[in-house]
Specification:
By secondary structure, the protein is mainly α. Helices cover 54% and strands 0% of the residues. The chain has 5 helices and no strands. The longest helix is centred in the middle third of the chain and has 17 residues. The protein is rod-shaped, with a radius of gyration of 23 Å. The two termini are 31 Å apart. The mean pLDDT is 89.
């Protein structure tokens, strides 16, 4: 999280208006909804996990057991089950 001094980035009248509601301390300002990305989308990790999960499902369909997949991907049996049985949205 990036901290900035409001005096340095906001107009004086806006800082004074905010101070009428919250004087001193930290305020979290979320990013706009249309600019939010799903977890891992910016760095590509989300794609890697989706690809891994696709491979897990295909391997299960082709006969690998849940135990084998858990060992191969270093995941718990319950994690593999969640991946395999998760329904598409």
């Amino acid at each position: 999280m990036l901290y900035k001094n409001a005096d340095q980035i906001l107009p004086k009248h806006l800082v004074e208006e905010v101070q009428t509601y919250f004087n001193g301390g930290y305020i979290y300002i979320p990013i706009k909804k249309k600019k939010q990305c799903r977890w891992g989308e910016r760095c590509g990790l989300r794609q890697e996990i989706d690809e891994r999960n696709r491979h897990i499902k295909e391997a299960f369909i082709n006969g690998k057991t849940i135990d084998q997949l858990a060992d191969q991907y270093a995941l718990s049996i319950s994690a593999i089950q969640k991946i395999i049985y998760k329904k598409k949205k």
